[in-house]
Design goal:
With 132 residues, the chain is of the alpha+beta class. The chain has four helices and five strands. The radius of gyration is 14 Å and the shape is globular. The N and C termini lie far apart (35 Å). It binds flavin mononucleotide. This is BLUF domain-containing protein.
Length: 132
């Protein structure tokens, strides 16, 4: 299996309503393709982990990287994994009014089974974004 983690910046054309659309399509496609992972979206940045069968993850990432709703896609980690680190497709979407600590806690719960490297990246990212 393959696991890819990347960060990106949302483009001006990516409104909150688009994140809802991204999620709907992602949940459908990822369930079909046996892809799991986690998406952090706060309206300005995305941080996503995708994991599953190598071919399926490669194909999904090619589609995602070409999506004009985000830009500056940077792969932080790409590695073969023996077992999934994220048991289910999950998503935390930060919207104004949602407490940053609650969000980080929510993400941390999802990350319990993730490798230290992945966990540290997500937690650091969420803290930085909360302060931004
Ligand atoms: C930040 C971001 C994350 C995305 N994540 C996924 C994903 O996990 N799975 C997926 O199939 N599409 C994802 N998409 C959407 C794809 O770019 C693409 O629009 C979609 O896969 C096309 O699906 P369709 O061929 O069924 O229309 C994401 C898009 C963005 C901008």
């Amino acid at each position: 299996m393959l696991q890819i983690m990347y960060i990106s910046s949302s483009t001006a054309s990516c409104a909150p309503v688009d994140v809802a659309k991204i999620l709907t399509v992602s949940r459908h496609n990822n369930a079909r393709d046996a892809i799991t992972g986690l998406l952090y979206a706060d309206g300005r940045r995305f941080l996503q982990v995708l994991e599953g069968p190598t071919d399926a993850v490669e194909r999904a990432f090619v589609r995602i990287a070409a999506d004009s709703r985000h830009r500056a896609v940077v792969v932080l980690s790409r590695r073969a994994i023996e077992a999934r680190e994220f048991g289910e497709w999950a998503m935390s979407h930060r919207t104004p009014g949602i407490d940053g600590d609650a969000l980080i806690e929510q993400i941390s719960e999802r990350l319990e089974t993730a490798s230290p490297n992945i966990r540290a990246t997500f937690e650091g990212f969420a803290k930085i974004r909360r302060a931004a």
